[in-house]
Amino acid sequence: MRAPPDEYEGMSREKLMDADSEGPDGWCHHTQFILEQGRCKWVNPNPKAEDEEEDDEDEEDEAEEVIPETGPSLLSSIMSDPQVDGFPAWTPKTTSQMNLRYAGVIMSSNRWPGAHALAYDKGKFFQNMYIGHGHKYASQPYSPPLPPPAQEEYKVDETCMETSDPTAEQVEQWNADQAKGEGSGDEEEED
Predict the structure, then answer these.
(1) How would you classify residue 86: left for phi > 0, otherwise alpha for psi between -120 and 50, otherwise beta?
(2) Bridge-partner residues for 66, per DSSP?
(3) Rounded to whole angstroms, how far apart are CA atoms 77 and 29?
(4) What average pLDDT does range 29-47 have in this prediction?
(5) Does the pLDDT at position 97 exceed 50?
(6) DSSP letters along the chain, please?
(7) Of the candidate ranges 25-34, 44-53, 58-67, 131-140, the one whose mean pLDDT is the lowest
(8) Do 72 and 83 meet the contact criterion of CB atoms below 8 Å apart?
């Protein structure tokens, strides 16, 4: 981080924290804004090719014109940002309540939880940091859709019935019947 020029005079902590009708003074956007499509530079999702321009006359009714997204201009005040669920987009606070002489000022974003800007040494130095999950604030937490209902088990009807295992006597009887059947079948084949 470079030191500011000697002639630069920073703002006092009170001015950076001042929460009047205009909000804290001296805070502005110095980088590009993240648009709804998740980019800083807007990209047309439906680009038109040169050879398609002729066919566009017929399809004008089908395809809607996409309006480019824009964010706040550079060096615009952060207090002009839209509110987040009825609260200001940014919340000021000091880094320390115990030692106000050396405390810095932190502006925390309510739209992007985890985004903070820190100004210290009478506003001459600042740092930006983000410690979060990359998700905007949402008043309702995300709940994934429920899985489909479980399939029913195989239906058992009259054609498919479970039977109990045979007893030892029933097995012996069946084996004896089979032995008799095999013996009588051999004699008939010889005749």
Answers:
(1) left
(2) none
(3) 7
(4) 83
(5) yes
(6) -PPPPTT-----HHHHH--STT-STT-B--SPPPPTTS-SS---SSPPPGGGHHHHHHHTTTSPPPPPP--PPTT-BGGGSPPBTTB-SEEEEES-SS-TTT--EEEEESSSTTEEEEEETTTTEEEEEE-S-S----SS---PPPPPPPPPPPPP-TTS---PPPPHHHHHHHHHHHHHHHHHHHHHHH-
(7) 58-67
(8) no
User: Euclidean distance between the first and final Cα of the chain, in Å?
Assistant: 114
The count of residues in the chain is 191
Can you tell me the distance from the alpha carbon of 33 to that of 81, in angstroms, rounded to the nearest whole number? 11
Residues pairing with 117 in the sheet: 107, 128
Q: Give the percent of the chain with pLDDT over 90.
A: 20
**Residues 8, 13, 19, 20: is their CA dihedral positive or negative?**
negative
Residue pair 25/11 in contact by the 8 Å Cβ criterion: yes
Closest CA to 115 of 128, 105, 125: 128
Q: Which of 76, 81, 82, 44 is nearest to 63 (CA)?
A: 44
| DSSP states of 103-120 | --EEEEESSSTTEEEEEE
